[in-house]
Specification:
The chain is built from four helices and three strands, in the order H-H-H-E-E-H-E. With 152 residues, the chain is an alpha+beta fold.
């Protein structure tokens, strides 16, 4: 009777370890990809947030329209370089609220919106998959311009 119980059990020796390894790999690969994709998106999100904040701050503190434009360009270039963003996908919109003839203007609020696209990792350029698998990230920031601000 003992021989009958030992016989069928010995045929499956080690199968639990094999199933554990197989299922572990099947579940681990998507989890690792998810972590990599979310890390890439979060890194770019920090980049656009930094670009928007610093551009709004430097634009509102400039001493003239020409200096504001130069400072805004420098702040955006700095953020692109620091966070490794693709400069071709970065879009910057600067506006003033309330709408003024020139931006920045005395007493206005400078609103900067930065938008970028994040390419998901390991997506091949086959059939345009790399263009379809992009995630848009956007951040806005607003700073008040001094009421005593003068252009020049």
């Amino acid at each position: 009777m003992r021989g009958d119980l030992a016989g069928p059990a010995s045929d499956e020796t080690g199968s639990a370890a094999l199933e554990f390894i197989g299922l572990g790999v099947i579940l681990l690969v998507p989890l690792v990809y998810l972590v990599l994709a979310l890390g890439a998106i979060q890194g770019q999100m920090l980049g656009v947030e930094s670009a928007a904040r610093h551009t709004a701050r430097t634009t509102s503190a400039a001493r003239g329209s020409a200096e504001a434009t130069a400072r805004a360009d420098a702040a955006v270039r700095s953020a692109i370089e620091e966070y490794g963003m693709d400069a071709a996908t970065v879009d910057v919109a600067i506006r003033c609220a309330p709408v003024a003839a020139e931006c920045p203007a005395a007493g206005a609020t400078v609103v900067v919106t930065v938008t970028a696209e994040v390419a998901l990792p390991f997506v091949p350029p086959v059939l345009g998959l790399d263009r379809v698998s992009r995630v848009r990230v956007q951040a806005s920031s607003a700073y008040k311009v001094s009421r005593t601000w003068t252009d020049g």
